[in-house]
Amino acid sequence: MKKELWYLLINGQSDATTGLYGNFYSYGLHLGDALNNTFEIIAKEKFQNPNLIEAFKLDNFEVIEKNNELIKLSNDVYMREKIYPFSSDDVDKEFQPPVGITKSTGEDQYDYDLITENFVAYGQDENGIFELELVVGKAKLVEVFLKTIDFLPSIDGFWIYIQNHWCSKNTELWVAKHFINKEQVIHFLTEQENNTIKNGFIKLVVHSLEGETNLSLDDHKKIQLHTKDEEVFKHFIGQIKYLGYEQTRDFYNLEFGFQHWHYRLADSLNRTEFIEMLKDNQFEFIDAWDE
Length: 291
Description:
Elements lengths: L3 E10 L4 E11 L2 H12 L5 E11 L12 E2 L4 E3 L4 E4 H4 L9 E4 L14 E4 L7 E6 L5 H10 L6 E6 L8 E6 L5 H10 L10 E7 L4 E5 L4 E6 L2 H13 L17 E3 L8 H10 L3 E6 L2
Parallel strand pairs: 3-7
Antiparallel strand pairs: 1-2, 1-3, 2-5, 2-6, 4-5, 7-15, 8-9, 9-14, 10-11, 10-12, 11-16, 12-13, 13-14
């Protein structure tokens, strides 16, 4: 398979008080692979705790401005010589996108600084559904999503949507009808963390019959709750607030108003392997459709 070339804006730390920004160009089989190639090599350049901030897919090496000035770190990774230091206190103020999605380089409809870790709650709509959306950054997304499963009154089903932008194929729905308690779902997601929660090409849905409630983590890594039960809704909001997240009306996330890329980790399953994993775990194929 031909390797892709990616521009990567990465931040990290050189020590406890100093953060760094660097511009990198990396080859890989896909974005996650290019990112892994970069993370492995920049540890030697004193980039600790790296985070992907922006990415852009390039047609070829020749389109890179002043590419003769790049420093070659390996056969796959190049970097700009200039590194930009900043106070490490500032990194906590900038939203770090969860693994699986990242901002694209370019002009956006909104200022990236508007994205913060908070939630929005909507009253009952014409279909009787209450809705909550929560944005959580890279550091806590896995932990928080697993905790939110425990906020549900019961578990009566677990669904996985494989999105059509993964290898440009049909959207597919797979269901684990035998997952009927929280422990089963949490165990599966913990065992398959890199292939599920950190996969930018799938949507996870945990279903409860009470209030026809659906808790989801979509392919933009946004946590959502839909329910017809107001008590379930109020309890969920209370638990989210207890975790330290504030309610807002000014809600921004990478899905709307920002160019972005979806990706999976280098050591995760490809789409074919992912489907085989679902079969091995007794998921049932329900349907496929073009979007």
